[in-house]
Amino acid sequence: MAVLKKAVAAALLAMASVAAAATPEQETLDRIAKMRAMSASAAASAGQEAQQQRRELDAAWRWFGNHKSVALPVLRRELAAELKKAKPNQLVLLDVGYFLRALGEPADRALSMQALLAIDPAGAAVQTQNQQLFRFVHASAADRDPRLFPLIDKVFLRGDVTVLVPQHGYTVDATSVCIYLYGQYGALAERHLRGLLGDASVVNRVLEVLMWVGSPESVPAVSAVLATKEADTFARAVTFMLRAGGPQGRDALLAFDPRGLEGKARDFYLQTRPQLTAMNFNALAQQLSDSPPSEKAPAPRRLDEAATRQVLAVLHATYGSYEGIQPTELALSAMPANALIEELLRVRERSLLRVSGEALADIDTTNTLINTLRFRGR
């Protein structure tokens, strides 16, 4: 009997060892199953229930990350199977898809993009998990896949999504959220946004985003908006011309006939008009300096092209941080303006990978530099 008991105990121990060895894969499956179970209840709710859901999803992320070698094959298999369903589970698409994008292998990006494109922009999961969706789209926007535009338009351009960045104690406002997403697309997003200027429901936000990601290419389209009767829209259109329109924007405003303006729009234009005649390279370059030249603060250096490229390399390495860098020196450098603008556009793309208030300040500096350089030699 003692021998039999020992044999049974040994068998049970062996079974327990096998079960324990299989635990990570089964745990991955169990956590995915728990995601699927959330969709019918918590995903459609708000408040504490949705917050609890997010905590549980975050815990799943941490577990997947701590067991990547086991979890990744399971996640790929389960996500591929989910995508074949007539109505795929939105939380699985969102969380598993983003995990593969952020922490998977480069080959996982195609599957991750399929998941992102399959997300219903009007679904309940998007409404309760829009912070996670922002992170997913922000990470994927670098691919510049225009198929994401309908999702970005619906959820972020037409919505009012703000994003908390806890590590910085900072909340990204709704317009800045759009800047971070569209900005990574460069000229492709600018063309897309120009096509929305005729939509009164989004024209103000489109103009606000174009101030940050636009160029003189959009001056003709924005010039048409100046005929608006809406003072707020008119002010945004004028501001775009000043911030991103270069000499073409200035000239369009100088040629504009203000006789049809009334009220706030007329006042705004008349306040702006004196700035236009003073808009030239020297004046704009001086505005980039913290203080005018003096004995204590001598005139900025004129960098040669080699020194300019060294500064640009630092900007690229620091994701567009201007700490220790004088923007005026770049504006006055010997590097040809068009080449320098192209490099600064690349710096702006890098800056958009940093989601923080400091990043937006640096992007503003880069944009001011770009707009100033467009006046050089004009």
Average per-residue pLDDT, rounded, comes to: 89
Tell me the total number of β-strands.
2
Head-to-tail CA distance between termini: 101 Å
Question: What percent of residues adopt helix (DSSP H or I)?
Answer: 55-70%
Count of separate DSSP helical elements: 20
Shape: globular
Poorly predicted regions: 11-21
Proportion of strand residues:
under 5%
Query: Could you state the order of secondary-structure elements as H and E?
Result: HHHHHHHHEEHHHHHHHHHHHH
Report strand order across the widest sheet.
1-2
In brief, what are we looking at here?
By secondary structure, the chain is mainly α. Helices cover 66% and strands 2% of the residues.
Notes on the protein architecture:
The chain is mainly alpha-helical and 378 residues long. It has three domains: 23-139; 186-279; 285-373. It is built from 20 helices and two strands. A two-stranded antiparallel sheet has the order 1-2. β1 (163-165) and β2 (170-172) form a beta hairpin. α4 packs antiparallel against α5 (109-117), α11 packs parallel to α13 and α19 (337-351) packs antiparallel against α20. The protein is globular, with a radius of gyration of 27 Å. The N and C termini lie far apart (101 Å). Residues 11-21 have low confidence and may be disordered.
Secondary structure layout plus pairing:
Layout: H1 2-38, H2 48-66, H3 68-83, H4 90-103, H5 109-117, H6 124-128, H7 130-140, H8 149-157, E1 163-165, E2 170-172, H9 174-182, H10 187-194, H11 203-213, H12 219-225, H13 231-244, H14 246-255, H15 263-277, H16 281-287, H17 305-317, H18 327-331, H19 337-351, H20 357-373
Antiparallel strand pairs: 1-2
Helix pairs in contact: 1-2, 1-3, 1-4, 2-3, 3-4, 4-5, 4-7, 8-9, 9-11, 10-11, 11-13, 12-13, 13-14, 13-15, 19-20
